[in-house]
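#lab-general

N.A. 3:47 PM
ok so I finally got the sequence cleaned up, no stray characters, all 512 residues accounted for. can someone with queue access submit it? mine expired

B.Y. 3:52 PM
send it over

N.A. 3:53 PM
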Amino acid sequence: MVKILLLLSMPKVNYYQDNLFNMHRSDRYGVEQMSAKNNLSVSQGSRYRHIAEQIKQAIDAGTLPAESRLPSVRTLATQYNISLTTALKTLRTLEDEHYAVAKPKSGFFVAPSQPVSPHFPSRVSQPKVIAPLDEQTELHLAMVGADCRVRLDLANGARSLYPIKKMGLLMRQLSYSKPFLLGNTVKGTGYAPLKVEIARRAVEYGCTINPEDILITNGCIEAISLSLRATVKQGDVVAVESPCYFVLLQMLHNLNLRVIEVEAGSEGYINIEKLTALFQSKVVKAFVTLANINNPLGKSIPNEDKAYIARQADEHDVIIIEDDIFGDTVFGERRPFPMRAFSPNAILCSGFSKTVAPGIRIGWVHSTNFMRKIASLKYTSTMGTAVLPQAAIAELLRNGGYDAHLRKLRRELASQIRQIRQAVLRHFPPGTRVSDPQGGYVLWVEMPRQALNVRTLFIQARNAGIGIAPGHIFATDHRYDHCFRLNAGFGWNDDVEQAIKMLAQWCKQSLP
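B.Y. 4:20 PM
back already:
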């Protein structure tokens, strides 16, 4: 075994300090003193990241050659005075990031070396031009969301989840009391009272936003599209989380952008070290993220990591475009902070289709630096957004109805997610892995590698009237051909239970 001394020195780093979110901390791997008000203190368990980073630096420097043995779990635990669990997590992190390989009954070894392009840091993926959809994937995308007997595909819910009657009543009242909402020309950046309400609520999640820097859009998807068109040009490289929401991948393809997919680490959210290495390499122009309640994994990046990502992006001129559409669906009382809470340069996109109703196509985008260009693009593409639903949402936000609705929505989604997750774990064969979402509507299921290809499972399910979202549409390659996404938004009933059993049976029958 090659022995090395890994020094855990922790130099001070000054992070961006938002006037609503002040924090004083050593570097992101050290002991952190966060605002008690926001309760963002980090446990000592985060030490595994610092230890893993030191080992990675030794590997990259050649101090630990390829295929040399790494310290054992017990050696790491003793050397750094950490638990065996933390030591094992350190080695598993190295394995997840392709710096180490585990050999049965032998321990962990440095991964074999791989040729690296001189323009990219080691172990960082090369950008890809997203190829046009093959015929099968195009067919599957067209089928996702089409009518079927058991709706386990799209990330929305039953009508009973939403305040539809209240919204209908508000719109009728407003159309009588303020008929100009229907009669005026739709132009400008949106209904001013709604923008004021959005800015007011943003204070609660760490953001100081000027209502003048908000543009109302036709859903969150338009907000993201406008943000990309305003900030990047054909051929630029965009980093995304992997698995990646399939609509975003196709949007990047249509804009002729290159993409680097950064996979999730063992925690269920993006690999922070690989992402920031991309920033430092100066090849990435923008990072598009669902930092809160990622789709499809359902995890949020911890606030201390968001702060680090935001600082690295600012230092290396990387534009953060954040899709925060699921932020309000988090389980529990505390809404997670978006990236914008940690940098005034982040572009924040959100909307109300996941909380008020899927048919309410009202989204919004906030940018400090690019609002003029975003507004210009909006005017020359869709010009404006219908005002009456904007006014109804503004009133729902103003009178407290939205907050009361969110409390109920979060409880019901948490219960529905839990029931379907337990059913998958109960019926699918050993080796199946299921995400444990922190909010939202969906679960990510990873079947054993020897199971049937999900493309086959998707067609079998459709023929039986069951809708799922096949994993291969969440990437540019075949890496998720053994995965699929399930929607829990339509609740738990006998049809859903039977559908889970059928999917599990097909999976079992395919195993050797």
